[in-house]
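Hello Y.,

Per our agreement to keep a running log of every chain we model this quarter, I'm adding this entry. I've kept the format consistent with earlier entries: sequence first, then predicted structure.
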Amino acid sequence: MAALQDQPAYIIKMRAKPGHGDKLFALATEGMYKSGSSDRFIMLREDADPDVLWNIEVFRSDEAKAAYENGPLADELRDEIIEHLAEMVMRVEAHPYSALPADPA
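Predicted structure for the entry above:
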């Protein structure tokens, strides 16, 4: 497995149309599990606006990221998710600097 700092990542923000937040979160979470390309991810729901999803996704490798992005699942998920969005997705490419386990003991 690659060193954490060598793994590509995304920080993604999506805003659902009013009343579509639960469906957007379900689709995004399902997609993370289906793809198998992520080493880890965290989905966050804003307290002030529960229709806003933040996703931090760390891919297993550059190859896993490319395979997902160029595979049919990405297109399928994108088509499903788009109908629930209120605005354009914000996506930032990044690499992790550090991460700690939930229980370092």
